[in-house]
Please model this.
Amino acid sequence: MVRGGTVVIVRKPRARVVTVNDAARDLCRGMVAGTIRNRNGTLYKPSVIRKYESALRIEVLPRIGDLPLSTLRRGDVQRLVDEIAAEKTADHARKALIALRVVLRLADRDGHIDTDVCRGVRAPSDPGAARPARILTPAEIAALIEAAEVGDRRLNRSFGAPFVALLAYTGLRLGEALALAWGPSGLDLDDGFVRVTRAVDRVRVR
Model:
């Protein structure tokens, strides 16, 4: 550009290079703060946040954290998954891939990438590790409740057997059942309803 007979060189500011580390940090902070939500528009559960953060911190970032997102390719992700499966287990590799997909979905939303490099990446499977869920029979449920009643009498308490029955006949998760309040907002014995609005989560203190 010429200004007053003088040639002025205008340099455009360099675009910030966003790495996998940067995108992962943005994701974890956003999930904790509640500014980033899942595909259903709801907040991430604390247990899910911890799983993603752990998979990223332990498996993903030490290997590809310094790579700029713009240079990340499908082959990089496939090699990452294969290395984790070889060094640890297929389950570790699968969890790492799931966490990385969430990171890249956020990066795509923010305009840092144009291509989903996780598309087509295959996580190794371990048929021996998967066990189908088994539903308890009515007789097994009755035996559990009876055993809990024995424990209640021995320990001079009254909540064990009803709590086991509540879990068995409602299908509640443990954290959901522990968070129930008495009354219309939770365990409503008068109307015969169970309203689940929250859950408690166990956190290991180091």
